[in-house]
Amino acid sequence: MGMKAKAHHHHYNASGGSGGGGNGSESSSSTSPSPPPSPRRHSTVPHCRRKLRAKPISIVSGFLLLRRFLRLLVVLPLLYVSGLLMCVGPFSGLLGHTPLPGSVYRSHEMFQLLWPHIQADNSTPIELSSVWRFRRKLKEQKPCPPSASGLQLDSPGLTGYLIVEVNGGLNQQRSAICNAVALAGLLNAVLVIPHFEFHNVWRDPSTFTDIYDEDHFIATLEGHVKVVKELPEILMDKYDHNISNIPTLRVEAWAPVRYYTGEVYPVLQKQGVIRIAPFANRLAMNVPPPIQHLRCLANYEALKFSSAISNLANKLVERMTEMSSRTGGKYVAVHLRFEEDMVAFSCCLYDGGEAENVAMNSIRQKGWGEKFKRKGRVTLPGLNRIDGKCPLTPLEVGMILRGMGFDNSTSIYLASGKIYWAEKHLAPLLKLFPYLHTKESLATPDELAPFEGYSSRLAALDYTVCLFSEIFVTTQGGNFPHFLMGHRRFLYGGHSKTIIPDKRKLVVLLQNMSMSWKDFKLEMEAMLTESDRKGKIIPRVKKFTRKSSVYTYPLPECSCLQKHNNTQIVPSTHS
């Protein structure tokens, strides 16, 4: 059953797209209570007739038994979860239950036990230049596919104008822009520079021009997709110079090519202009090669940060390189998601006691209202931790890296917002890695002043410094690390050069108070090797069979844009 394009006037749902850090849509299911059993009736049917009806009654009984069995399939998991709640809940100690492995945050206790052994460890540290041992053999570079204009369409010329509303954080916006370029190519439409919607979470009023070099974007796509800064005057007059007057198409997530060619294209031909809002994740990953190429072209060549962002970002990379002279100018970048709103959204428990619990409840109430108190919603902090959904603390990141063999002379760049209870939580990380830097420590107050209050512009600074690090560490997932891993694969011969800690395994290790530093190191070294192995993986992509994101795994489709002859990557040449 195909999707239908719905046109709306003057309506826009700001929460239509998924967010960045704690992103995702909530799904819920409802179960109708079974009706009470009917009162037993006194039968007046003769005995002989009851015997004749015995067979149908047995069939009905079978259906009743099947119904009860299916009901048990629903009830038993609920009972199981309830039992786990008793095990990992706050009353488990009173009830005498042993917490499930990995369900309780004890990393701070583990650190105190192992700290003397960490200090006494005189083993040879790992060299940053030799971390990545797996190499991918580069295949012969194929030419890029021809222009996609008018692909699979009958129209010989441009069909109309495409307007998209972009929401979310920096990299969700980036995804939508690249998808818009691809869609414009598919529909043979003129793309109007995307409009950034103000979002209550990020609260960043930045426009496209504030984040990206608009002229470079238009020039790079010339010959592939025509891009204009605004609608022509004749169309603006038609809609009273108000873009919101243009009928809005509501498109389902990951809509396939056939939907756009069959449902959206006729509307574009008829009206001459269409507006799609919201536009996050509204185009399937499975698209023809020429359309996929447009995504690559937009992401890796057309989208270049504005001069204000690029100039400061490149200075930060240079300063970070200078600060890392002890390790040959190479450094480790960590994307840390331990801001207070992230901690609150995760519903995880750390070592702050009742004061932390009260503070997190207050933040959840302020940011999400009654979302976490809805009827039937059960919050299980212990299970969240076991399932690897809790943000890593700065302490845990430090222990992971020291366990992997990085010593205290390693320079660390911390890409993050304001850390929750920073004075407390950053102290152990600084003990483990005293050469710790942030954009705030590398830039002067005057340099950062124009960026304050603009979360996407600040994120762009972090993105650039992380992009050119020798090692990138992701701790929580989301659009930021996924785009970075893809961009690094594109730049570094197919290898993401990224450490992805196995948090499900890690939480069990960090709760084991009998583990020695030697054994912990062996586990972390194995985790590093696994990150190295996975970093070079390229998904098998046949015609129209891509399941993974081209932004996280850009090869093989984007390989024609790679410049393999470059022996040194200069930050200023990239976004």
Rg over C-alpha atoms, rounded to the nearest angstrom = 28 Å
Q: What is the mean pLDDT?
A: 84
Portion of residues within helices: 40-55%
The structure class reads alpha/beta
The percent range for strand residues is: 5-15%
Description:
There is one protein chain. The protein has 575 residues and is an alpha/beta fold. Among the domains are: 107-128 and 307-476 and 495-537, no CATH class; 157-301, 3-Layer(aba) Sandwich (Rossmann fold). It is 44% helix and 7% strand. It contains 22 helices and twelve strands. Strands 1, 2, 3, 4, 5, 6 and 7 form a seven-stranded mixed β-sheet that branches. A five-stranded parallel β-sheet has the order 10-9-8-11-12. Strand 2, helix 5 (170-187) and strand 3 (190-192) form a beta-alpha-beta unit. Helix 12 crosses helix 13. The longest helix has 35 residues, at 54-88. The radius of gyration is 28 Å and the shape is globular. The model is unreliable at 6-57, 82-95 and 565-570 (pLDDT under 50).
Write out key terms for the chains shown:
22 helices, 575 residues, membrane, Rossmann fold, FucosylTrfase_pln
